[in-house]
Amino acid sequence: xxxxxxxxxxxxxxxxxxxxxxxxxxxxxxxxxxxxxxxxxxxxxxxxxxxxxxxxxxxxxxxxxxxxxxxxxxxxxxxxxxxxxxxxxxxxxxxxxxxxxxxxxxxx
Length: 108
Prior knowledge:
- The chain is mainly alpha-helical.
- The protein has helices at 50-65, 71-107; strands spanning 18-19, 25-26.
- It has a domain at 40-107.
- Strands 1-2 form a two-stranded antiparallel ribbon.
């Protein structure tokens, strides 16, 4: 008769996995929990200046162009970012006007 075939160890992750009622996945062969796949965290951008908003709009554009963000979601987020940009400009103008009024009051 021929030689006995060597078989590779059985990979236990995959078809034999089971999920319990709490959402934990258990390996079907060993009964141990399967570690979750880590997700990449997005870089936090503070959005406190117009430059921050500009960077975020550009990132959103690139993600939409690459197909990572749906066009409908991107247009909604872009609207919010544009609104935030207008609020930043208005707040800056308000502070400048207040500073000018204060300086003219002190000069009188």
